[in-house]
Known about the structure:
Layout: E1 3-6, H1 15-26, H2 33-41, H3 46-51, H4 53-66, H5 68-80, E2 95-100, H6 108-117, E3 121-126, H7 133-136, H8 138-154
Parallel strand pairs: 1-2, 2-3
Amino acid sequence: VSLALGSTSSKNDSPEFYQKVADFKSGKLKMNEESFRESVTLGYTAEYLQTHPDHIELSIQRKLRVGPKILIALLENFVYHYNTEIDLPKLTLPIMILHGSRDETISVECSEKLHILFPNSTLVILPKQGHGINQELPQQIASSINEFFSIALKN
Length: 155
């Protein structure tokens, strides 16, 4: 058994995340089409945004349908209650961590920290990529994961 992770973090308790929750709750930041467009577009390269406008619109429309109260509750849960650092070192299965070097949603440092916390992990930083690596490079990601799993299954 092995595991592949992409652009993720072990916990999200940074001052920036706390401030973002407070700003959304106070109304300083709005949960509207403009803010969703800004957050969605941060994760992708300019080329992907140009060639896949339908993906961006679909993501924005999904967030608009959910509504601000639920999105704020999800964000609060993500920031205040998500912490897996205690359990991570217990995982001994092979783990592959994939991350875009230009990810503005989750910093590369988060994946580097995960790599340290997971005793049997492989970290792959994809140059010139943002947070949307699985949408932008589906074939390369699938190949990398297949290769990783093939090697992991042999060991």
